[in-house]
Amino acid sequence: MLTRRIIPCLDVRDGKVVKGVRFRDHVPMGGIEELALRYRDAGADEIVFYDIAASPCGTTVDCAWVERVARLLDIPFCVAGGIRSVAQARAVLRAGADKISVNSPALERPKLIDELADAFGVQCVVVGIDSWRDADGQWRLRQYSGDPEKMRALARPTLDWIDEAQRRGAGEIVLNCMHADGVRAGYDIEQLSAARAVCRVPLIASGGAGDSGHFLDAFVNADVDGALAASVFHSGTIAIPELKRVLAGCGVAVRR
Amino acid sequence: MAAVVLVDSGGANIGSVRYALQRLGVDAPVTHDAARIRSASHVILPGVGTAAAGMARLRETGLIDILRGLRQPLLGICLGMQLLYERSDEGAAQCLGLLGGSVRRLRPRADVRVPHMGWNRLRVVRDDPLLEGVGPGEHVYFVHGYAPAVDSATLAECDHGGAFAAVVRRGNVCGMQFHPERSGSVGARLLANFLES
Questions:
Q1: What's the number of domains chain B is made of?
Q2: What domain range is A99 assigned to?
Q3: Does any domain span residue A99?
Q4: Residue A26 — very low, low, confident or very high, per pLDDT cuts 50/70/90?
Q5: Which helix (H) or strand (E) element contains residue B46?
Q6: Fewer CB near the last or first residue (10 Å), C or N of chain A?
Q7: What integer pLDDT is reported at residue B11 of this predicted model?
Q8: B145 touches chain A (CB under 8 A)
Q9: Closest partner residue to A75 among B79, B116, B182, by Cβ?
Q10: Cα angle at B174 between A93 and B113, to 5 degrees?
């Protein structure tokens, strides 16, 4: 049986891993390679590296650290940040990343998803989505969330974009529920369940993990394929072996 | 001893396979040079992408008959394994035909998401030196939307909405549908077993 994935996310800025609250006020957490190996040893199923500065600055991800990580790691990893062309994606994949994730550039030019899927196959193409619950209760997209100065609210409903991204060739969706992010009050089960209902490819929950029960809730009640978290892992609040023990004890299939 | 070589199939994941071999102490060049491939001790055909694009690349580089004529151990990884079969549903591609049968699309259901992405268990169906030291029910990392059916060449199968072949071997031709280079210590052991064959 396919196991549910536990995915530490390392937000990368200027070559360091950082973490902010509600996508703001980023605080340095440590070196990329050091954290990557620590999570591999702890039993992470996959690691996502998200270069949060790349997209708002119009720059792309630096392939030198991608290659260093690829040489070290024997588990899969995905790189996100500023990838806006097939050529840039190819450079990141050639450096050793297993998947690439596109977010703001796919909103700028949705055809990028088709081009990436045609060039590398859908299994390499992850679409990251930043979503905010607006005052009217509707979930809508946010763009350029890596930089509070440049962040934009879009009129487009999140569930609409999930549907389009899949039709264009997304092989996986990572849904960042931004109002839950960094506050450790649990994943947004309501939004994730609504996304699950329209998402036929793997769906990864992001934003809100505070304790082991939150992961259990996301797997059992929103039926997500993986759960991504950052600060609870970086701070040591949740140890991955203990988290997997709890999940397995509750009947969730995990790799141990 | 002649070198282990990685066939430049145009797939973008060649780097990660190369690094996995380096972690085992083997520096395998990436090449599409026919003479180097013919004289290699072991040949690995990696690949990420689509079957049609992978075959087009092998045709362009003139490697189809070279690969068909190899007598030394040959390992196809992921798409590379799929290219070993007669044909693939993906782009209706004619493949190398070193293994009988077709590669089919995995069938999605509500509880079976495609692509099959993540860690899943191997079920060993036939003992083979390629599986030496691999315990029962070990997890390996899969990322694929197509797979070959279980047949007499299957050493280990996996289940995702139905059984499919995960590790195969017929004579010198071996295949792994998952990514041994990203499957932790189990994957490293499988690659080491191949290099010892």
A1: 1
A2: 5-249
A3: yes
A4: low
A5: none
A6: N
A7: 67
A8: yes
A9: B182
A10: 55
